User: Fold Transcriptional regulator from Microvirga aerophila.
Amino acid sequence: MASTLETFTLDAFDLRILEALQQEGRLTNQELAERVGLSASQCSRRRSALEEKGIVKGYRADLAPEALGLGVTVFTHVTLATHNPDNARRFAELVRHLEFALEAHALTGDADYLVKMIVPDLKTLSAVVNEQLLPHESVANVRSAVVLETLKDEARLPLSWIKPTRHGER
Assistant:
């Protein structure tokens, strides 16, 4: 399957729109126009095209976990009991229903998966590991690393590597 950028080119205005939306997803088309140097209607059309192509997946609030009582971030390495498609599917289903799981990634190396979780406290982490992960038929081993300090937590994607097309090259 071709990547989106292979089928949809981005010019400098598109990249400026993406950068502005990453900084503030609630911008109106008029505010966006003022930031990128286009009319509001042009920004609206371009924003819609970026959404339709799946480049802009959605808009959401950036919540402060600590303000909501979620003060413990954990990276959990999971090794599967057996390596086959059915077991991987069972584990994926488990993770989809883990309330505290924010991300889950299949890995190369010692662990099969890395699950990022955020929990209110260590007691909750212990319950998730001992009552949900370890008893599950797909799981053989779980190792968790509690985050002591977050040095960088950036949700914005780096766009500087993308070479914009010139106007009219779409």
Observations:
- The chain has a mean pLDDT of 93.
